[in-house]
Design brief:
Blueprint: E1 3-7, E2 10-15, E3 18-23, H1 37-45, H2 60-67, E4 70-72, H3 76-91, E5 93-96, E6 99-102, H4 122-129, H5 136-147, H6 164-175, H7 178-199, H8 230-250, H9 253-274, E7 275-276, E8 281-282, H10 303-306, E9 328-329, E10 332-333, H11 359-374, H12 385-396, E11 398-399, E12 402-403, H13 433-440, E13 451-453, E14 464-472, E15 475-482, E16 493-498, E17 501-506, E18 512-514
Antiparallel strand pairs: 1-2, 2-3, 4-14, 5-6, 7-8, 9-10, 11-12, 13-18, 14-15, 15-16, 16-17
Length: 516
């Protein structure tokens, strides 16, 4: 019998073949969890509970209190959407005979794998879920994907482009669970080789169709066009870098060097063949990379920054996120440049990526932007750029006055284009809270023991914020900004607490490095 019981600081979950209990030995150092319960009370009563998985609405607050970092800020919509996105993520955790899985849609889809699993957003699920206090959900989910089919990969794991190796290595930077990561190395190596066999061209670039990137009906291609796209090539670069690092952790220098060589080769190819100097943008190249550039800037051209692949010479591309004729629309970042003559010409509501705003792409672009803003400062990006775009992302996650996340939305009106379809509700196809934690608050996960914090908050925007009870490298972190010290009564400025004790500070919002 499967059950979930939460109370008195103990989380106990039992299901076929797996039982475990984890005691929450300590809580937040500054914030009080009950101060945020009202958000969940509202979410639970604002609409019907259309499907119940592992954790029903009635137990959602106790689960969140035990599992998610607390966040506080003076801007109500930021705080509300932060808790809303954890509330919706929880809805997608599903008990199966093989362990927990995380779904993309709540309602069943006929093209999903067993247990209604779809691999398209697996990387997003891992990046977001790495901040949960209980990592069994992700551990099980990844194991089912790679070993749930009689010990092998699920049949539809490779139906969509993947950055799973990269995501798991970046999860390791948070959890430091080396044993799990090394155990997954043979599976990730096998997956990489499968992509090489099926999708690598003679030039060394990888090709993909739009639909297998989860981005059908784009301006640069089509559902069946086999093009060299910035997506899959950046993903494979990120995976190669991750596999090199994982192999090094194992002490397998030969495998580490092999994957570093693969990454170096892909970096050169992406720079030489996918960077269009005329448009100053990474673009799709037709006919498996043998044809011309597609001739359109698309959000996928920002993905190289997601994996720290791009260089300073490519920075001009970021001008487009602030340009209203580029990607900057009233309700978010469009998936194609607005100036293009075919922008939003493919009709509506069949999953078009010809310009409408998709949270999947928004979260990739903002992750890439945060990476760039944490590197030596690009002159083309203002200090306010990240916050402004994140604020639009927050504002877009409402429908008829209530918090909502779905598939995609109109860039001018903010209307969710499948908002009245049950399949779209709670669409688990993007990140948001990872952007708050690693971008806005600025906790930058690292493989070493240095704690790095660099908030991307404009200096004059908020007088205070706090992220509390973050589980990181076996420690509990609290990151707090209080301009004059009057709000939290813990002192002035930016402060980082480790296990409740002050470990670093700055008078202004700036980068803090804490050495153990």
């Amino acid at each position: 019998m499967r059950y979930l019981k939460i109370g008195f600081g103990i989380v106990c979950i039992g299901l076929a073949g797996l039982t475990g209990c984890a005691r929450k030995t300590a809580g937040p150092a500054v914030l009080k969890a009950e101060d945020y319960k009202h958000h969940v009370t509202y979410f639970n009563r604002m609409e019907d509970e259309n499907k119940v998985n592992a954790i029903p609405n009635a137990q959602s607050w106790e689960w969140m209190k035990a599992n998610v970092p607390l966040f506080d800020c003076p801007q109500d919509n930021f705080r509300e959407i932060y808790y809303y996105r954890w509330w919706t993520y929880r809805k997608h955790i599903h008990n199966t005979p093989q362990g927990f899985v995380i779904t993309e849609f709540l309602v069943d889809r006929n093209y999903a794998d067993k247990y209604n699993m779809i691999s398209c957003a697996l990387g997003h699920h891992i990046y977001e879920g790495r901040w949960l206090h209980d990592q069994r959900y992700l551990n099980d989910n990844v194991h089912v994907w790679f070993r749930g089919n009689e010990g092998g990969r699920m049949k539809k794991l490779l139906n969509f482009s993947s950055w799973t190796a990269d995501a798991l290595y970046n999860r390791y930077k948070v959890t430091q669970d080396k044993a799990y990561l090394l155990d997954m190395l043979p599976d990730l190596d096998s997956e990489y080789k499968a992509w090489e066999k099926d999708r690598r061209t003679e030039s060394g670039l990888f090709w993909q169709t739009d639909v297998k990137d989860g981005m059908e009906e784009s301006l640069s291609g089509g559902r069946r066009e086999q093009n060299a796209r910035p997506t899959i090539n950046s993903y494979m670069y990120g995976n190669a870098k991750a596999l090199s690092a994982i192999a090094a952790l194992k002490g397998d220098q030969a495998l580490s060097s092999l994957y570093q060589s693969k990454a170096d080769t892909l970096k050169r190819l992406i720079d030489n063949k996918l960077w269009n100097a005329d448009s100053a943008f990474f673009e799709t190249v037709k006919k498996r990379g043998k044809g011309p550039f597609a001739g359109v800037r698309e959000a996928i051209g920002f993905i190289p920054w997601y994996f720290d692949l791009a260089e300073e010479k490519h920075d001009g591309a970021w001008k487009q996120v602030s340009d209203p004729t580029g990607f900057n629309a009233p309700f978010g970042l469009t998936t194609a440049e607005r100036r293009h003559p075919e922008f939003r010409t493919h009709g509506c509501c069949q999953c078009e990526w010809d310009g409408a705003v998709w949270p999947f792409a928004t979260s990739q672009t903002l992750t890439g932007l945060a990476n760039r803003m944490n590197a030596p400062k690009p002159e083309v990006v203002a200090d306010t750029t990240y916050f402004g775009l994140l604020e639009k992302y927050v504002e877009s996650q409402y429908y008829r006055g209530k918090p909502y996340v779905g598939e995609y939305l109109d860039e001018k009106t903010g209307s969710w284009l499948k908002g009245d379809q049950e399949r779209s509700r709670y669409y688990n196809h993007s990140t948001f809270n990872d952007l708050i934690i690693t971008g806005l608050v600025g906790l930058r996960p690292r493989a070493d023991e240095v704690i790095e914090v660099n908030p991307l908050l404009p200096a004059d925007k908020w007088d205070w914020f706090c992220l509390d009870d973050v589980h990181y490298h076996g420690k509990r972190l609290t990151i707090l900004w209080d301009r004059d010290g009057s709000h939290y009564k813990k002192g002035k400025g930016l402060q980082v607490f480790v296990n409740g004790k002050k470990a670093g500070s700055a008078d202004t919002i700036s980068r803090i490095l804490i050495n153990p």
